[in-house]
Specification:
The complex is a heterodimer of chains A (169) and B (74). Chain A has 169 residues and is an alpha+beta fold. Chain A has a single domain, classed as HORMA domain (Cell Cycle, Spindle Assembly Checkpoint Protein, Chain A), CATH 3.30.900.10. Chain A is built from 3 helices and 6 strands; from the N terminus they run ααβββαβββ. In chain A, a hairpin with a 3-residue loop joins strand 5 and strand 6. With 74 residues, chain B is α+β, with helices and mostly antiparallel strands. Chain B has one domain. In chain B, strands 2-1-3 form a 3-stranded mixed β-sheet. The longest helix of chain B has 15 residues. The chains are: A alpha+beta (169), B alpha+beta (74). Chains A and B meet through helix 1 and helix 2 of A and helix 1 and helix 2 of B.
């Protein structure tokens, strides 16, 4: 029984570290993309406490489905490019593996081009009935029907969670 | 796993049920249910879940065996 208890405690700590890693790395990927697109990261930095608080809460409760960085024309609102990070939750995995494929992110962002003068925002989709988090409100993603979809694959990998990236450009 | 917190600077503690101890979401839900049941005036806090989840995550990521949620003001 003692061994079982130790395993459970160890497992819950690994899960917590995985969640912290994932939420930090989502911000890292988005900031990498923002600068890569030629945009000012100041707005993201200002909102980072709200963004990370939302991500941490919804990942902890397993309510986060995906996080999006939407880049759009300020005047028309038309989406110019979008990064989707689809979140995965796992029961098991390599307890020592915490990796972010930042080179694949950079390559995909470079291929998407630059969008000077555009605005951006972070949007998430959550499970139905997700808990409310301060600073977040309901919205609708802009259409990406005029853009082409490119799957980048797994870019964030932690023992109990991870994220797959898709870019629309 | 033991959970400590304070309300109005009065220290409280309780033991989480064994069934919740391997699931952070279940832990969060049990703690929130307990706080709402024991402290009716906390129920009006709109972002109670968010505060519990944040404290829980910070504690567990640090590897502690006793969860300290900190102060919940009325």
């Amino acid at each position: 029984m003692a061994v079982s208890g130790t395993h459970v405690r160890s497992s819950i700590h690994v899960t917590a570290r995985s969640i912290v890693y994932l939420t930090n790395e989502i911000s890292r990927v988005f900031l990498e993309a923002i600068t890569g697109f030629g945009l000012d990261p100041g707005a993201y930095a200002e909102s980072m406490p709200v963004i990370e608080n939302g991500l941490r809460t919804w990942v902890t409760l397993r309510q986060l489905e995906a996080a999006y960085l939407e880049v759009y024309e300020q005047r028309s609102g038309q989406v110019r490019t979008r990064i989707d990070l689809t979140v995965e939750f796992r029961q098991s995995g390599d307890d020592t593996r915490y990796e972010t494929d930042i080179e694949s992110v950079r390559r995909a962002v470079t291929q998407a081009g630059s969008y000077p003068g555009c605005a951006y925002r972070v949007v998430v989709t959550t499970a139905q009935g997700a808990t409310p988090v301060a600073g977040w409100s309901d919205t609708t993603l802009g259409s990406v029907d005029h853009l082409s979809r490119h799957d980048v694959g797994s870019v964030i990998d932690a023992p109990r969670t991870g994220a797959n990236m898709t870019i629309y450009r | 796993m033991q959970v400590k917190y304070s309300v109005g600077h009065q220290a409280r503690e309780f033991e989480l049920s064994a069934s919740a101890e391997d699931d952070i979401a279940a832990m969060c839900s049990e703690i929130e249910g307990r706080l709402r049941a024991d402290h009716a005036n906390l129920s009006s806090q709109p972002f109670l879940t968010e505060k519990i989840a944040d404290a829980l995550l910070n504690n567990l990521a640090d590897g502690v065996e006793v969860i300290d949620l900190g102060e919940f003001s009325h």
